[in-house]
Design goal:
Order of helices and strands: HEHHEE
Structural class: alpha+beta
Strand content: 25-35%
Radius of gyration: 11 Å
Number of helices: 3
Oligomer: single chain
Distance between the termini: 15 Å
Shape: globular
Number of strands: 3
Amino acid sequence: MSDITDEDRRILAYLRDSVSTGEGYFRSKNIAEALGLSSKQVGARLPYLDEKSDEVEIEKWGRSRSTTWRVTLS
């Protein structure tokens, strides 16, 4: 996981803290608002972080108006 950026670490920390009791469902825009990023930045990083992180599993869960991501602890 040495090739992830500070932005990636912030996203992972947010997700890990938010799902500390099991699983959670998130929208990129909500993560972005909490971290001061754009939803496009977050949405583009989540699939990459799923591959690179051993801490959380990130799954594209549904798409209505925007993509919902299901996050669970590994």
